[in-house]
Amino acid sequence: MGFRLPRIVNAKRILPKGYFAVYVGEKQKRFVIPVSYLNNPLFQDLLSLAEEEFGYDHPNGGLRIPCAEDLFVDLTSRLNGY
């Protein structure tokens, strides 16, 4: 007698609508953030730095952000207040 296991979906690749993935720091930790951050001047400055360092070619599907993880977490926590 056998049984079926539920299908396992790679949750790391599923993004809720209105969110996108960024990879931060030396270890490229993955964060999923709202697209509304793209309108914020602080986040736009961070994206400009990312463009200078990494360009726009991101084969893994997410943007790479050149800053420390703790700095990124601090920035995004501030953006949540807007």
From TrEMBL:
InterPro entries in the record: SAUR_fam
Pfam families listed in its UniProt record: Auxin_inducible (PF02519)
GO biological process: response to auxin
Protein keywords: Developmental protein, Growth regulation
Family: Belongs to the ARG7 family.
Protein name as catalogued: Auxin responsive SAUR protein
